[in-house]
Amino acid sequence: MMNSALLLIxxxxxxCQNGSxxxxxxxxxxxxxxxxxxxxxxxKLPIVASQDWHPAEHRSFAANSGTQVGQIGMxxxxxxxxxxxxxxxxxxxxxxxxxxxxxxxxxxxxKGQQIDVDSYSAFFDNGRRIKTELDDWLKENHVTRLFVMGxxxxxxxxxxxxxxxxxxxxxxxxxxxxxxxxxxxQDSSNALQVMADKGAKFIMVKQVSTAL
Length: 212
Ligand SMILES: [Zn+2]
Known about the structure:
The protein has helices spanning 28-42, 62-65, 134-140, 153-166, 187-197, 208-211; strands at 4-9, 47-52, 72-75, 78-81, 107-111, 145-151, 170-179, 201-203.
């Protein structure tokens, strides 16, 4: 019997409609998240939410690096997509979507606080130099299986799932709970393919209750 947890990726205002880095149809996953939350709550299983949490001077922001939004450059020796200012600590944009049942969230994991490195994964920064508290927290709570969903498929969901697999978690992606940025039209489908190649399984939220 594997101990499961729900892992909700970056369900924050700036990634939803009218946010500064709005993911197309981003809002539509909030209902899916709430359905999944209800299932995990009923079984008293942990619900973890990651939160992109940048200082205002974060250098992944094009405005702070003298670059153009959507283009790619280098930051601290790592390839970096330049983003609009988003998810700045203590701003409304960084808050969870108001319709998310966040009172049910057991644990919040924040990422992206270091100004010179981005952090797509909820486990590590993009240089894999600094670990968040997520892996330790999951191990302390004897979690071996993760159900992952959120924003965005081609960045934070993808890198979180790949790190989870590398850390030997059993990973299932709730596919209707994910939406992508798609700077290139195939980015999300390519991301899903990479996740599948590394061992991720896919499921729809309506199938979660029988999979738990
Ligand atoms: Zn960010």
